[in-house]
What does this fold into?
Amino acid sequence: MTYNPLTALLLFTGGVVLIYILFRPVKGWYWLLRNNWQSNEKTVIEDILKQLYRLESYGSETDVTALTNSLKFKDSTVIEAIHKMSVNELVKVEGDLIGLTKEGRQYALRIIRVHRLWEKYLAEKTGFDKSEWHDRAEEMEHVLSNEETDVLATQLGNPMYDPHGDPIPNTLGMLKEIDGVPLSSLEIESIGKIVHIEDEPDVIYKQILAEKIHIGSVLRVEEKNSERIVFYSEGEEFVLAPIVAANITVAELKKETVEEDTFRLSGLLEGEVAKITGMSKECRGENRRRLLDLGFVKGAEISIDLSSPMKNPIAYKIKGSSIALRKDQASKILIHKIES
It folds into this structure.
């Protein structure tokens, strides 16, 4: 058989196109079949309501095309659900634009209430990593009844904010405003406290997680331009693209009210001695209780005892014991250095 380069190229190109059609993100046949197999009408409707609420909260008008492109379901499934929602007066459709009715907005807030309460539960009562909270809450928001949601809220002490700083709607659909401004809007030398980290879109949220940026941390902006924002917080320097910094909300603080000698335990060097001043709000639930039980309490004196070759984990000497912590754990313990 004679080798034909043109035929080989056409076969290769055709294979690439077929793989793209089958597996392209969100709209590939594989993902469409998988997601539609697992979904039902209630899930589709509730995801549409939640997405419309999110877009409207940003002041955006939404058309049907933009909505279908932002959801993981087949276009025809979304359009059919919109028709049923319009008949049931959950949405209003004017030309190509679609918006929530009063009833639709209240329904959306009930779904958001379940989602944020469940994230709070995962943060406070389980050992799941925060990178898993959102996806697990996405599953539970379609399962819990109103009665079960109210029981969950009571067990958690009726919290007003979820672990990301998002306000949790109450039983009447009322919720507090986020009091702050985007980090990207702060000027150089401004000081603020992180009060909210947006967990959508997922790609930006994962960048923030990778940087180990914590809610409750006090920061000072050192540099700002169109390409990057540099800020100093808890003894470390952070560099973010403006589009990423825009997903972090900070409450501005007066300089005279801020003490900037707080460091993370992960920044302690060999030969230095420090006292623990507290724990980051990122340290919650079972992890927090375990560290407190091990002696990592406010006022305790601490130093490095032993380091592994990769500096992770590190054994710290505290209250006569040597306790090893991973860098991620140590970054959530706050200290004040007292001597070298």
In short: The radius of gyration is 24 Å.
